[in-house]
Amino acid sequence: MVAVFFWLALAITLVFFVMTLVLAVLQWVIYFRVEQISLKAQKGGRH
Amino acid sequence: MQEFLMIITLVSIWCSLLIATVTLMGAVHFWLRHSQQTAAITPLHRYPLISIVVPAHNEELVIAQTTKAILELNYPADRVELLIFADNCSDQTIQRSRAVLQMLKYRGRQAKVIERHGSGGKAGVLNDALKVARGEYIGVYDADVVPETNALYFLVQKILGDPARYVAAYGRNKTRNAEQNFLTRCINQEIVVTQRIHYCALWHLFKIGLIPGTNFIIQKEYALAIGGWEDGALTEDTDLSFKVMQGGRLIALTHNSEAFQQEPEKIRDYYYQRLRWAKENYQVVLKKLLSPL
Fold first, then answer.
1. What is the pLDDT of residues B212-270, one digit of tens each?
2. B181 contacts B265 by C-beta, under 8 angstroms
3. Which strands, in side-by-side order, build the sheet including B111-116?
4. CA B186, CA B177: separation in Å to the nearest integer?
5. Could you tell me if A1 and B3 are in contact, meaning their C-beta atoms sit under 8 angstroms apart?
6. What are φ and ψ of residue B82, in 5° steps?
């Protein structure tokens, strides 16, 4: 019972780990896009 | 028994992690779709009359700034009616708000200060406002909230996108005094997480909207039809949100409508504010669960 549960727990932990990595990448993309828009807006304001 | 308890513990941890991950995924998907769009201020096909209600109870320190911010909103001046309810005030709230309304640049605006001595708190004020407001929509801004110039424009724009489904629209609140001390910086973080992640995910994934108490508009006829706000309820907005969703209509999130609100600066005020919210929110949830459908 404990052995089966150990492998189940390990699999779920790995799934969460992969999800964390995916979320981190996607959040970096959002941050990059927002920064790009802010920079464009700042440049537009100066001219 | 020990093994069984361990399994229950682990499963409960996984469930909470799953809820958090789903919420975060929803928010990330929402912001991925919106992160390349800049908000455009284009003329609306119509400008409904909005009655903005400001419930004020002894707010002499902040009322003038709030009144000015509302009168300066980017929305046609003849389509905004401002109703400041001085609710059982014993300070200079009435005089200070009247002084702003008498300023030369605001003369001729549809704005008045109404002295109120009734009971019911904020919910009572909003119910009184329903009786006297002429607008198609009622907008609510607390006395310590300063809306950003386009806040109302974005709310109206959102509702006009699908007026049959959206009976209310609500914006985001930011912390006005975030730099005051460590507590207000923490509250600012909390509000950013709640509003930019939690609210966006709930709306994006499940079309669930929660009226936040300020910076929102609601169709007046609909508010009247569902019986308005529950008198005396401290978290009157939770109650109203339930009523709207039970009626099968939607409260639309307008992520680009922003207002700046004052947050507690002392730990004691913060504790009692959250205690009150928690108590009243549980009260509303229990009432809805126990009441027959």
1. 888 999 999 999 988 888 776 556 677 788 888 888 899 999 999 999 988 899 999 99
2. yes
3. B111-116, B80-87, B50-56, B137-140, B216-219, B166-175, B250-261, B145-147
4. 11
5. yes
6. -105, 125
Which letter does DSSP use for residue B227 in this model? T
Residues 6+ apart with CB under 8 A from B42: none
Interchain contact, B36 vs A12, CB within 8 Å:
no
Q: What distance in Å separates the CA atoms of residue A32 and residue A17, rounded to the nearest whole number?
A: 23
Residue in A23, A27, A33 closest to B36 by CB: A33
Which pLDDT value is given to residue B234?
A: 55
The ipTM estimated for the assembled molecules is: 0.80
Report the candidate in B151, B145, B170, B173 with the shortest Cα–Cα distance to residue B159. B170
State the amino acid at position B4 in one-letter form.
Answer: F
- The model's pLDDT over B108-132, given as tens digits with 9 standing for 90+, comes to 899 999 988 878 788 888 999 999 9
Residues from B in contact with A at Cβ < 8 Å: 3, 7, 10, 14, 17, 21, 24-25, 28, 31-32, 35-36, 38
Structure tokens at B114: 């109404």
Give the closest-approach CA distance of B221 to chain A in angstroms. Answer: 39
Which of B30, B35, B38, B200 should we substitute to test contact with A (largest number of A Cβ atoms within 10 Å)? B35
Q: How far apart, in whole angstroms, are the C-alpha atoms of residue B215 and residue B97?
A: 19
**In this predicted structure, what is the pLDDT of residue B48?**
95
Position B166 confidence tier, pLDDT thresholds 50, 70, 90 = very high
Task: List phi, psi (to 5°) of B46.
Answer: -155, 155
Of the residues A2, A19, A28, A38, the best mutation for testing chain B's interface (the one with the most B CB atoms within 10 Å of its CB) is A19
